[in-house]
Amino acid sequence: MKRILSGIQPSGAFHIGNYFGMMQKMIQYQDESDLFCFIANYHAMTSLSEGPALARGTFEAAAAFLALGLDPAKTTFWVQSDVPEVQELTWVLSSLTPMGLLERCHSYKDKVARGIAANHGLFAYPVLMAADILLFQSDVVPVGKDQKQHLEVARDLAIKFNNAFGDTFVVPEAEIDDEVAVIPGTDGQKMSKSYGNAIYIFTDKPTLKKAVMAIVTDATPVEAPKDPDTCNLYAITRLFLGAEERAALRERYQTGGLKYSDVKKELIELIWTTFAPHRERWDHYLANPGEVLRILEEGAEKARAAAAPTLADVRKRVGLAYR
Ligand code: ADP
Ligand code: TRP
Predict the structure, then answer these.
(1) 66 in Cβ contact with 14 (< 8 Å)
(2) Cα angle vertex 153, ends 149, 155, to 5°?
(3) Are residues 145 and 219 part of one domain?
(4) Domain-embedded: residue 263
(5) Does 323 map to a domain?
(6) Does residue 197 belong to any structural domain of this protein?
(7) Tens digits of per-residue pLDDT, 73-114?
(8) CB within 6 Å of ligand 2 — which residues?
(9) Pocket test for ligand 1, best of 6, 15, 18 (most atoms within 8 A of CB)
(10) Domain residues for 226?
(11) Is 106 domain-assigned?
(12) Torsion angle, alpha carbons of 44, 100, 107, 151, to 10
């Protein structure tokens, strides 16, 4: 069975773009692979410097994954900093990483270009990410397009290490799903928590209503036929519909007489009922944080046990285990 590994940063509440773009897919993998899934809180530190916010975000990210259906009995699910061994591997890999390799990374260069103060953590981010992947001998790493170059760094470092010290690491494959469309936000741009255009999964109904009502639509008159394929409201609504319901909605668009405000009202109910069981579990975990913490403790133990043989082998090969 293939080992699939991925991580998500706990940098804010999750929206339906996160769910349809990443989380749902990860949760489906738990039935067909040896899934390793973690909350990348060390990585989040490169852009978040408030301790309480990071701690709360980490807990809520874990609760969200569990509420959305991640099953800790089928997966290895943990918080990155609960397996600090990954930092030792980061150092070992750092010593093999040419500066030029990191200097070429777009995500670092983009952040610097956007005026985000460059700290060493941001620069070294891909090395920590490589350590996440290699420590667990991952075969496949599903990521968004923006992470493609980081996967190349991980592959480069695995090959470099294997050449220098003998076969140690699985060379991981990136899985970049070009099919997963970018989910648009209420203004039609990519949905993102940084753009103020997100529809959040765990929210109260008035807030949900407000977000959906704010979805931008065009000025086509009610009686005129409309094109679902250029409609932002359709692009979001379709995520919550099966094939037949999609066809029926398309038909309503194309025959004319459709009111966008009716579709919005339907969408509010669709989102509200789709996530009803998840919301119930979310409320449960928030009221019973001890349950989440226990799951994370067990997850960390499983992850540590999986990491131990690789780290011991690395220490021996590089000469850290000198006795
Ligand atoms: P945000 O843009 O809100 O800060 P992140 O960059 O933290 O979101 O993304 C976390 C995960 O969710 C990534 O795997 C990313 O590919 C996915 N994701 C985020 N926004 C979208 C979107 N609008 N459509 C599809 N996937 C998304
Ligand atoms: N950098 C990834 C992101 O922002 C999160 C991440 C950290 C990750 N370590 C990873 C993803 C290892 C895959 C594998 O989306």
Answers:
(1) no
(2) 110
(3) no
(4) yes
(5) no
(6) no
(7) 999 999 999 999 999 999 999 999 999 999 999 888 888 888
(8) 5-9, 40, 43, 129, 132-133, 141, 143, 147
(9) 18
(10) 203-274
(11) yes
(12) -80
